[in-house]
């Protein structure tokens, strides 16, 4: 079983819960899986904090925001405290601006319709309303001449 776990880890990094589920679905006994995972954790072959940091870095580069990333990590049964600490180390407002510029270009939206479309896009990508406001610039003045 240890060899199977190491083979899986050689392909990609796994969170502890993911690797446990994978090994148990392969037919290994839960007690034996727990023992093997304890050894792998002790040897630092499995490290949930490292997994979280790598996951955040990889998905942030893809243009995903902290809300979406946190939800994905929570679905993987990872510690929320570790996730929150790792997410706090990023400048999400700057990332939201970069994602918006990559998709829509450098100029800010000129109308409410364009602003709403861009805001929906950023919300879908997992950015919070504060990050979206930062990326889209100041609100329009409806009384200003066009």
Q: In a nutshell, what does this entry contain?
A:
With 146 residues, this protein is mainly α.
Explain what you see.
- This protein has 146 residues and is mainly alpha-helical.
- The protein folds into 3 domains: 2-46, Arc Repressor Mutant, subunit A; 48-90, Arc Repressor Mutant, subunit A, CATH 1.10.10; 92-146, Arc Repressor Mutant, subunit A, CATH 1.10.10.
- It is built from 9 helices and no strands.
- The protein has helices spanning 2-11, 16-25, 30-42, 48-61, 66-75, 80-87, 92-104, 112-125, 129-136.
- Helix 5 packs antiparallel against helix 6 (80-87) and helix 8 (112-125) crosses helix 9 (129-136).
- The longest helix is centred in the middle third of the chain and has 14 residues, at 48-61.
The CATH class of the largest domain is identified as: Mainly Alpha
Largest sheet: none
- And the CATH topology of the largest domain? Arc Repressor Mutant, subunit A
Radius of gyration: 21 Å
Number of helices: 9
The CATH architecture category of the largest domain equals Orthogonal Bundle
Shape: elongated
SSE order: HHHHHHHHH
Span from first to last CA? Answer: 69 Å
Tell me the domain tally.
Answer: 3
What share of the residues lie within helices?
A: 55-70%
Mean pLDDT: 91
Number of strands: 0
- The fraction of residues in strands falls at under 5%
Structural class: mainly alpha
Outline the low-pLDDT stretches.
none
């Amino acid at each position: 079983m240890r060899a199977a776990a190491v083979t899986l880890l050689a392909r990609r990094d796994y969170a502890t819960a993911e690797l446990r589920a994978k090994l148990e679905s392969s037919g290994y006994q839960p007690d034996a899986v727990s023992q093997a995972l304890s050894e792998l954790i002790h040897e630092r072959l499995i490290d949930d904090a490292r997994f979280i940091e790598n996951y955040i870095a990889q998905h942030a580069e893809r243009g995903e925001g902290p809300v979406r990333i946190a939800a994905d990590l929570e679905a993987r049964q990872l510690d929320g405290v570790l996730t929150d600490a790792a997410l706090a180390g990023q400048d999400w407002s700057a990332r939201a601006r970069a994602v918006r510029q990559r998709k829509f270009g450098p100029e800010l939206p000129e109308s409410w319709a364009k602003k709403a479309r861009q805001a929906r896009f950023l919300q879908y990508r997992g950015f919070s309303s504060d990050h979206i406001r930062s990326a889209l610039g100041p609100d329009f003045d409806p009384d200003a001449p066009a």
